[in-house]
TrEMBL record:
PANTHER family: OS06G0361200 PROTEIN
Coiled coil location: none
UniProt lineage: Eukaryota, Viridiplantae, Streptophyta, Embryophyta, Tracheophyta
Region (Disordered): 37-83
Compositionally biased residues, Basic and acidic residues: 57-71
Name of the protein: Retrotransposon gag domain-containing protein
Limits of the Retrotransposon gag domain: 171-215
Annotated Polar residues bias: 46-56, 73-83
Organism name: Sesamum radiatum (Black benniseed)
Length: 222
């Protein structure tokens, strides 16, 4: 694409140079005519001869202008066409990029950054108790024991004065790495209470832990 754009720019530059050369030719002819006019002889014969020469030069200049004008118009038309094609190519490239993003991610580029909370609106509307101070939570990255993480999380939140569905809004602060990625990928408003959040979490990570344990046990026997 960069090579194509450079070629188009070179063509436009060449056309502009050709037009400038034509203008210089006309200016040179005008200068020659002016010089001839300054050399006019006072005699009738000389004046007649010079007038004839001037008329011939003028006619020759007009003929050249008549021949060059269509070329200038053609060059200008070609330049406009090249510029239009270049602009069209840029527009087509932008559309191709947008379509590629949409095909790859299943949506428009503007929607890629959108994020919706995985819990319902009524959970989002819950307010923490007066004077509540968020506790320091241990973080789970998907590699430890998910049941132990749940037990530690609930105990820590209870000691800080929260329980039940209030735990849903705090749970994300106890996740990192693969576990955080799992949380972000949950369907919007798919969690309506703490039991559902706990169940989804254990279904995802406890089954993985059992699979890893079986692999480790098999390797140990060998």
């Amino acid at each position: 694409m960069a090579t194509e754009a450079t070629t188009m720019e070179e063509q436009v530059a060449q056309m502009a140079q050709a037009i400038a050369d034509l203008q210089k030719i006309v200016e040179d002819k005008d200068l020659q005519i002016a010089q001839l006019m300054n050399k006019l002889e006072p005699t009738d014969a000389g004046e007649s001869s010079h007038n004839h020469s001037s008329i011939s030069k003028h006619a020759e200049k007009e003929k050249q202008i008549d021949e060059e004008l269509p070329r200038q118009k053609s060059a200008q038309k070609s330049s406009h066409s090249v510029t239009s094609n270049a602009a069209l190519s840029v527009q087509q490239l932008q559309e191709m990029i947008a379509n590629t993003i949409k095909a790859q991610y299943g949506g428009s580029a503007q929607n890629l950054s959108a994020y919706s909370k995985p819990y319902s609106k009524w959970i989002d509307a819950l307010r923490m108790p007066t004077g509540y101070q968020p506790p320091k939570l241990q973080q789970f990255d998907g590699k430890g024991n998910p049941k132990q993480h749940i037990a530690h999380f609930i105990e820590t939140c209870n000691n800080a004065g929260t329980d039940g569905d209030h735990l849903v809004k705090q749970f994300v602060r106890s996740l990192k790495g693969n576990a955080f990625d799992w949380y972000v990928d949950l369907e919007p408003e798919s969690i309506d209470n703490w039991d559902e959040m706990e169940r989804e979490f254990l279904n995802r990570f406890y089954s993985n832990r059992r699979t890893v344990s079986m692999i480790e046990l098999t390797n140990a026997r060998h």
